[in-house]
Description:
This is CNH domain-containing protein. This protein is of the alpha+beta class. Helix content is 42%, strand content 21%.
Amino acid sequence: xxxxxxxxxxxxxxxxxxxxxxxxxxxxxxxxxxxxxxxxxxxxxxxxxxxxxxxxxxxxxxxxxxxxxxxxxxxxxxxxxxxxxxxxxxxxxxxxxxxxxxxxxxxxxxxxxxxxxxxxxxxxxxxxxxxxxxxxxxxxxxxxxxxxxxxxxxxxxxxxxxxxxxxxxxxxxxxxxxxxxxxxxxxxxxxxxxxxxxxxxxxxxxxxxxxxxxxxxxxxxxxxxxxxxxxxxxxxxxxxxxxxxxxxxxxxxxxxxxxxxxxxxxxxxxxxxxxxxxxxxxxxxxxxxxxxxxxxxxxxxxxxxxxxxxxxxxxxxxxxxxxxxxxxxxxxxxxxxxxxxxxxxxxxxxxxxxxxxxxxxxxxxxxxxxxxxxxxxxxxxxxxxxxxxxxxxxxxxxxxxxxxxxxxxxxxxxxxxxxxxxxxxxxxxxxxxxxxxxxxxxxxxxxxxxxxxxxxxxxxxxxxxxxxxxxxxxxxxxxxxxxxxxxxxxxxxxxxxxxxxxxxxxxxxxxxxxxxxxxxxxxxxxxxxxxxxxxxxxxxxxxxxxxxxxxxxxxxxxxxxxxxxxxxxxxxxxxxxxxxxxxxxxxxxxxxxxxxxxxxxxxxxxxxxxxxxxxxxxxxxxxxxxxxxxxxxxxxxxxxxxxxxxxxxxxxxxxxxxxxxxxxxxxxxxxxxxxxxxxxxxxxxxxxxxxxxxxxxxxxxxxxxxxxxxxxxxxxxxxxxxxxxxxxxxxxxxxxxxxxxxxxxxxxxxxxxxxxxxxxxxxxxxxxxxxxxxxxxxxxxxxxxxxxxxxxxxxxxxxxxxxxxxxxxxxxxxxxxxxxxxxxxxxxxxxxxxxxxxxxxxxxxxxxxxxxxxxxxxxxxxxx
Length: 864
């Protein structure tokens, strides 16, 4: 696909060059800086001075001034011109001789130094000599199959090497020690230092003119078969794909990133980056095409022209304007080497952003997103395309010059609502990805506000996720938008994220009451309860406590019973205040007292007594109602009452007992007697009144928990006595007594039992009890024997240690020194350590409290 990369500008017109001499033709050219040299067929050299002029309309022209016109003595065609600016020398090939001339006055050097027998020559632009005062020249010699290398100084020449080739060379290019040669039938790479050669590919010098051109370090451009421009390195390989020329290429030049070729009718421009032909310029009768330090010069036999490259930025913009994004990006990447780093980075980012908007307009969202990211696009550029998404307070101004030509999304999509929806979906996705990255730094408010508006408009589920996490949505813009789209629950979340909890709860309460319509959450009441439960603003909790409890007593009480753990530890809500509030709500009151007594285990008599009374009132109420449907609730409440009476020791027992008196709550009365240690009364109720023997056994068990064995046995003997009461002779009591003995044999004193039971009871009847009693007695006896044995062993061990310590003699005299204070002993008392160390008693006492005692005394146990 075409792109305007160069324009052809005349430089030297025919009249300036040859006046009215029709037969004079241009044979060769050389350009060095502003100096242009033209060699002609009549043996003359013209020196021109070039001045480039740029008009405001970006029209480039050249002002050419003729400096000199020098005729050579040979009067033959000038075959080649090469400038050596470091030496101020112009190398001129004429009549197989290379002469050295002054670049300024075109006079031959006084010494007359020259190179004879040259068919063609070239300069080594990657010299190996290391001498800055000479240039390296490679010639194709008139001697058959010979290449010669010279060092050319300011006033002399020196041959360095002569290399033979397998065929006659036609053209040569040189890079370092490497020669790229066009022989008669093939191209080769030859290392003249080692003599190693590498065949490249064949061609016929008779069919077409060979082209050998150095285009970079260790890389050459060659005219290959089939009209291909082939790239080859000194290793004989190609690192670039070939470009497709015409079959009749006359010359080639390089102006990165382009390769330019000349044939009989056209100048063609190919990209080295993607090998595509970019431009074609009609140009007839051309026969010279060369590049000189960035200048590309083309000549016919009568005139000289310059191919002026258009600025790469303009070329890239032209490609983008044609929506050729890939080509523009390839060209931009290739321009890196020709542009300063900082300038390139700024330019390349902008190009990526422009390319992103082109892809965006074509709904190529994946490609657009990648380009936006790579180009570090200010995301507000994208948001600004969408009407009303940027906050009204935003100070954003679009980039100038603009990155695109669209006023807004409606213009871009031409009102197509399906496309509009796709674009909004893309923006939602893109903003959600970049909002937590560096891309949004500095304008997170704009990003989050725009994202909220998109979510609300699309009824997107992520709206709530955005608001419950940290966000930077601007309150004024966002609130108005949420109200417009009737997202009242989300609006409450917005208020909450901005620290306005009172406004949030007020809004949600209106939704629950039906004053506002929003079906976002069907469990909004539960959500409000949870919110108030964790709300640190206690005034707000008290404000809505009545409303919450009126809606649902069981759930509403959670605002007091499920506070965060740290609040519970601080006792942030005074229980007395809460109870006063809950007095109108009996269900909530019970739940709260259960929380205080059973969960928080607050040891205050009034709470335990209050809860017991509430349980008792509820039981009595349910019993008096007698409703069939209340039986399950009655059983549940009665179980709670009994559990509290059993497990708590803090309620007022006598007060509760008075309340129960006169009712049929016999089990509860028995528990209360148990709390008063009136076990005979309690067991009498269970055994004689209720006939509930299992409850009687259970009574003994729970009353004796965490008590010693004598107390436990006392309870069971009391129960046994109740069973064996001589005032009654019920058979079932006797059976219960036998079962009690057989099931709890370890809990009885067998001797006392045998004294209590009637004489008529057989041994077989009590066999299980007697066996258990014997087993328990034997177990106790053996356990005692083992304990006594262990104690005796321990005693023997200590006695043995004492005997060992007494076995060694300790001599004490007034000359013996204490090992701690180094003072003599004045009294017969001393302390001796197991290692034989003797110290004063007071010294031993003081050292025992220091950490250094074990360091000075070898016995780790500190025994004396």
